[in-house]
Design brief:
By secondary structure, the protein is of the alpha/beta class. It is 40% helix and 20% strand. It binds nicotinamide-adenine-dinucleotide.
Length: 357
């Protein structure tokens, strides 16, 4: 297969980790007889510095014309001035909107070799394999909001959670289809005891599960309970679907289960068109340029890209297996290793992945 992949390395460690994922994709292309054409474009702080815009038009055009996009990370102290005209993160929000990426997928998988770096007990997290679907373009973060001046000198601020039937249906369908290919269980998280928008989620999902997905096991959990269940019974979840803000918070909570940010990829998908793949960590300005960033999350994001945008399941599984083997063989980057033990840098650990592919 021939595929066009746009690279958005971004800021901080972004370029360091994306360049390693490209090495792995090149190796996969060679092994399986594919051609991946890479085109690198600007986003975030570097785009602000060079063009004044965190998402220049030529980046948008290249992304729209691609089969898939691999992003590093954006942001850093250089662009943190709260009074700045624009911020690196604005580029990320806009690219999601331009491409209609309404679903954020976050796999939370624990690696046996890293169980001891998790803050939770081994027996609780061992075997955890959750795929989160967070709605990304609606709800509280995009509904009407504002601040009003009151007569008595106080201010009154509001944010509104708004969802339509269609917005709920399209992400629930995506999640349910994924559950069908996995263990066949879908958990929907809401706050239907309080929020009207959650009651819509509950009605729409229940109807879909009955009409289209009666073969799946279906469970509804309130978001406050879910915050507890994630820490007490993470193994009992398969696919979890939820609204924008609940997903934002729960996926960050869940990201602590495997023990390191440096191992977690994510994908943002729309109905058609290219998907956007990235590690969940940020630009890690504290270690940028030192050659010690863990590239495995970005390498695993590249595996997701192959699976979800190019339908190359065997190739994706090959990368994931190589990463597992690297960990099983005892190789670690600094973020994964106990203090004082020997570690590999960004390039050296990728060399090991390439050896084991
Ligand atoms: P961060 O994820 O960049 O870093 C948190 C901690 O984890 C740091 O100590 C960092 O060194 C470490 N870390 C992160 N990724 C690592 C890796 N691959 N290997 C080894 N160690 C790693 O989060 P932060 O410090 O809160 O944010 C830094 C900047 O990144 C901010 O400007 C923030 O806005 C931005 N950010 C961007 C994204 C994104 O682009 N999607 C996401 C989160 C934060």
């Amino acid at each position: 297969m021939k595929a066009k992949i746009v690279l958005l390395p971004g800021d901080g460690i972004g370029p360091e980790v994306t360049s390693q994922a490209v090495r792995v994709l090149d190796a996969v292309a060679k092994k399986f007889g594919h051609t991946f054409l890479f085109d690198s474009k600007r986003i975030g702080g570097i785009a602000i510095d060079e063009t004044g815009d965190p998402l220049p038009q030529d980046t948008i055009d290249a992304c729209k014309a691609s089969d898939a996009i691999l992003l590093g990370a954006v942001g850093g102290p250089k662009w943190d001035d709260p009074n700045a005209k624009t911020r690196p993160e604005a580029g990320l929000l806009r690219i999601r909107k331009e491409l209609g990426l309404f679903a954020n997928l976050r796999p939370i998988v624990t690696f046996d070799e890293l169980l001891d770096s998790s803050p939770l007990k081994r027996e609780i997290i061992e075997g955890t394999d959750i795929l989160f679907f967070r709605e990304l373009t609606g709800g509280l973060y995009f509904g009407p909001s504002g601040t009003e001046e009151l007569a008595d000198g106080q201010q009154r601020a509001y944010s509104t959670a708004v969802y339509t039937t269609k917005e709920v249906e399209r992400i629930v369908r995506m999640a349910a289809l994924a559950a069908r290919k996995r263990k066949g269980k879908l958990t929907m998280v809401d706050k239907a005891n309080v929020l009207e928008a959650s009651r819509l989620w509950r009605r729409v999902t229940a109807k879909m599960m009955k009409d289209e997905f009666s073969d799946l096991e279906y469970e509804v959990v309130l978001v406050d309970s879910m915050a507890m269940h994630l820490l007490s019974r993470p193994k009992s979840f398969d696919v979890v679907v939820t609204s924008n803000m609940f997903g934002d918070i729960l996926t960050d909570e869940a990201s602590m289960l495997p023990g390191s940010l440096g191992m977690l990829p994510s994908a943002s998908l729309g109905s058609d068109g290219p998907g956007l793949y990235e590690p969940i960590h940020g630009s890690a300005p504290d270690i940028a340029g030192k050659g010690i960033a863990n590239p495995l999350a970005t390498i695993l994001a590249a595996a997701m890209l192959l699976r979800h945008s190019l339908q190359l399941d065997a190739e994706a599984a090959d990368i994931e297996a190589a990463v597992k083997k690297v960990l099983a063989a005892g190789y670690r980057t600094a973020d994964l290793a106990p203090k004082g033990s020997s570690t590999l840098g960004t390039i050296a650990i990728t060399d090991k992945v390439l050896e084991l592919l």
